[in-house]
Design a protein that fits this description.
It holds the Pfam family V-set. By secondary structure, the protein is mostly beta strands. It is 11% helix and 43% strand.
């Protein structure tokens, strides 16, 4: 009699699971790599214990941590005949690629920025029993790569009337920076923060073109400045001219002409005893990248 009861119990369990197949699971890669400024796809597929499911379904993507992380994407499908309608898409850059009804939650992230480098977690919720929810626990780590890009290159002066050139570039991995140009003392300093690097060339003493080159495993970039020191007519003070390669000859000509005209005009016919002599403003600074 006891054996008969066990057989009936087993048959009852089998009949109750007649609409079920696999158990819950989520499948994601541990890492995905994307390129800065482009798009990337985060794959996520899952299984659930139902052979057929026609109730409401919700797909969710979070960042930073599972269960409580910030939601960056969410869509809802009310029935198997309805597409998953987007309810949340942070900055409108997250797009659903997969079909949740076909157990695919994959998304695309457009126009990648540095802040997109994070850990992502996909989650599916089936309307009904509270246990019909499942989320990846380990998540996907999104890594970014980027070819070097020079974001700033300048020449500036110090209080002791010395000059230095400064070049800042970014990339991933962080690029190596080198200065080339006229002979100069080997006095440089480098600072880095994450994917950004700055290299300073101190005590500029020779006129000419100074080029900053940034290199990493994904490419290279160059930026340059022209540094010139000259004396305005009638003045014993050196003037500094820093130019970009584009249009250098035109800018030099305009600068020299403006300084010459200014010096020929001389002082005002009614000078004030409190007035101080002023030097012609002939300083130009910019960069090429």
């Amino acid at each position: 009699m006891r054996e008969l009861g066990l057989v009936l119990l087993c048959l009852l369990r089998i009949s109750r699971k007649g609409v079920q197949s696999n158990s819950w699971s989520v499948h994601v890669p541990s890492d995905v790599t994307g390129e800065l400024g482009k798009m990337v796809i985060l794959p996520c597929t899952f299984t659930h214990p139902y052979k057929a499911f026609d109730r409401a379904l919700t797909a969710i993507w979070r960042i930073k941590e599972p269960y409580n992380g910030t939601i960056v994407f969410k869509c809802v499908s009310q029935s198997s005949s309805e597409l998953c309608k987007t309810a949340i898409s942070y900055k409108n850059k997250y797009k659903l690629l997969g079909n949740p009804r076909h157990k695919d939650l994959s998304i695309r992230i457009d126009n990648l920025t540095w802040s997109d480098s994070d850990r992502y977690f996909c989650r599916v919720e089936l309307a009904g029993d509270i246990h019909d929810k499942y989320e990846s626990r380990s998540g996907i780590k999104l890594h970014l790569i980027a070819a070097p890009r020079i974001i700033n290159i300048t020449v500036s002066s110090n209080r002791d009337h010395t000059f230095q050139a400064r070049c800042t570039a970014e990339g991933e991995p962080a690029p190596a920076l080198t200065w080339t140009g006229p002979p100069y003392p080997n006095l440089t300093s480098t600072t880095s923060t994450g994917h950004r690097v700055t290299k300073e060339l101190r005590y500029l003493s020779h006129d000419g073109k100074y080029t900053c080159t940034a290199v990493n495993s994904h490419g290279r970039a160059e930026g340059a400045v022209y540094f010139y020191r000259f004396k305005a007519s009638g003045s014993s003070f050196p003037m500094i001219l820093v130019l970009v390669p584009l249009g250098v000859k035109v800018l030099v000509l305009l600068a020299v002409l403006s300084c010459t005209v200014f010096s020929r005009e001389g002082p005002s016919s009614t000078p004030s005893s409190l007035a101080r002599p002023q030097l012609p403003d002939c300083t130009y600074e910019n960069f090429d990248r």
